[in-house]
Design goal:
By secondary structure, this protein is of the alpha/beta class. It is 56% helix and 12% strand. The strands form two sheets. Strands 2-1-3-4-5 form a five-stranded parallel β-sheet, with helices on both faces. A five-stranded mixed β-sheet has the order 7-8-6-9-10, with helices on both faces.
């Protein structure tokens, strides 16, 4: 939704345009009013404005001078000039400041609506251009290191569909192809450096990758990332098939280069690192298995060691994937539930359940471990939101449920998740009801000054979000409700003969009685005087 600023030294014109046109239908969410060019510039400096409608003939600073300032400071703002003078000189001067249109007074609503509708469409098209392929490609190039890092991390966790991967490999200009022979290398920084800040570590990691590219880049394409364990991970593929190599020589050559890399990091960067090199496999099918095997090796064999090197030749034992390994992968169950990512939580839970069902050997302890982790995420969510889990799920009986099998675990976990999600949605509905009541109470107390912006400020919400939320809940816009309440209050006040019509007008926030009479007549089909006479 967009915002509009109306500027004219005649308050009647400003108020009439602000209140009589259904701006929301034109996708204008916020309408600001200014009665001088100086006031307009102040509003522009404080608020995001998309379109300005300004009168040319204003004292002290004319509309032409105003749009000149707008052109200089706010190039994105569209300007429309109003004037009672059909002089080409004005229009010609306005063109110099990229004024979008030039309308003559007296102004018809239809003409203005047509111009605003055209400008709204133009603004939308310009924003579309911002996200067009040309801009996206430019942005993509700047973001490639981050995007490549993210994609490799997702591959390590086996979260990328093959059809998506092919597109992204081409988009990111990565030379990896299906069924390429690959090897994975993990580099773990050993020494803790309290004197180093995050920027220093970033530069250090950058230097390590540069040394790796310098040493391996002639023979291998490299793709690197930083994993969830703060290790550097490199995936390597041979650039070409070298016939001179004997069978089985590739792993030995790669291991030799990896050992030289470890030595050079110590020599040139004065850093101690451990390096583990995987067996060779196929891209992308084996990458998750190779990486999981390596991380298990690091946990089991390098827990209390530093400066170690493990090659593919040294880890011959068969790697058995633990049935609950996905539970510990990021994002964790705690994180998904805390952020109310209900569907992702269900998907992860179902994946773990399927892994457990397909596991070759699954003990009752594995079931209890999974139960403990899932239950812990539920308790964490409840207490994080200052609630008792028993209150969210409707009692304590289900909390102590004994789970012996994977099927029982699945049924219990999905039941609990449904209850928690339902409680969350009910709480949100209650919160929306309270907010709606708060908005209406504010309007009733401040009927003369209430506007979308003042209400948003009072309840600490963005005007666009507030408007959407209120309309979803009540079926009407905030401005509609304000107008309706003003008319109801006006009809009530007119019953008191001691109140002058101009006084009623002022109390309800109208700038003058003439405009109040116009709006009242549109609402009730008669003027305030006629309404009072028939009482």
């Amino acid at each position: 939704m967009l915002s509009l600023l109306i500027v004219d030294d005649e308050p009647t014109i400003v108020d009439t345009l602000a209140f009589t046109i259904d701006w929301e239908k034109l996708e204008i969410m916020t309408v600001y009013k200014a009665y001088t060019a100086k006031e307009a510039l102040s509003i522009l400096s404080e608020h995001a404005v998309d379109i300005v409608i300004a009168d040319i003939n204003m004292p002290r600073m004319t509309g032409i001078e105003l749009v000149a300032q707008i052109y200089k400071q706010y190039r994105h703002v569209k300007s429309v000039l109003l004037s009672g003078y059909a002089e080409f000189a004005y229009a010609k001067q306005a063109i110099n400041y990229s004024v979008s249109d030039y309308l003559l007074k007296p102004l018809s609503d239809d003409d203005l609506i047509a111009v605003i509708r055209k400008l709204v469409q133009q603004i939308k098209e310009e924003w579309q251009e911002v996200v067009s392929r040309r801009r996206v490609v430019h942005t993509l190039k700047e973001s490639l290191p981050v995007l490549k890092d993210k994609l490799l991390n997702e591959l390590l966790m086996n979260r990328v569909k093959e059809e998506d991967l092919l597109h992204l490999l081409e988009l990111y200009d990565l030379p990896f192809q299906l069924e390429d022979e690959i090897c994975v290398m993990v580099i773990r920084m050993e020494e803790s450096l309290p004197e180093f800040n995050d920027r220093d570590f970033f530069l250090l990691e950058y230097a390590v990758i540069n040394i790796a590219v310098e040493m391996l880049g002639d023979s291998y394409d490299l793709w690197s990332c930083k994993d969830a364990n703060d290790c550097l991970v490199l995936v390597a593929r041979k650039k070409s098939v070298r016939n001179e190599d004997g069978i089985g020589e590739e792993p030995k050559k790669f291991d030799s280069l990896a050992m030289q890399l470890q030595r050079n990091i110590g020599l040139y960067l004065k850093r101690v690192v451990s390096i583990i090199v995987s067996k060779w496999g196929r891209f992308p099918g084996d990458i998750n298995m190779l990486y999981s095997h390596m991380t298990e090796q690091i946990r089991s064999r390098l827990a209390n060691e530093s400066g170690c090197f493990l090659s593919s030749e040294l880890s011959e034992e068969v790697f058995v994937q633990q049935p609950l390994h996905r539970m510990y992968e990021t994002p964790t169950l705690h994180h998904l539930l805390e952020n109310r990512r209900w569907d992702e939580y269900r998907d992860k839970l179902e994946t773990v359940i399927q892994d457990m069902k397909q596991a070759r050997s699954l003990s009752s302890e594995h079931v209890q471990e999974a139960y403990t982790l899932v239950a812990g995420s539920f308790y964490y969510y409840a207490h994080k939101h200052n609630r008792l889990l028993s209150d969210l799920v409707g009692g304590t009986s289900v909390l102590g449920r004994v789970v012996h099998s994977v099927q029982q675990l699945s049924e219990w976990a999905h039941y609990m998740l449904e209850k928690i999600q339902y409680s969350d949605q009910a709480e949100k509905r209650s919160s929306k009801d309270k907010l709606t009541l708060k908005i209406r109470e504010y309007i009733d107390r401040n009927l003369s000054t209430a506007s979308l912006q003042t209400i948003a400020d009072a309840v600490y919400l963005h005007p666009v979000y507030l408007s959407r939320l209120y309309k979803d809940k009540t079926g009407e816009g905030v401005s509609e409700y304000i107008h309706k309440q003003r008319m109801v209050k006006a009809a009530e006040m007119l019953k008191d003969d001691s109140l002058k019509i101009y006084a009623i007008s002022e109390q309800l926030g109208f700038k003058n009685a003439a405009y109040f009479s116009k709006v009242f007549r549109e609402e009730f089909g008669m003027t305030p005087n006629e309404f009072r006479e028939q009482l």
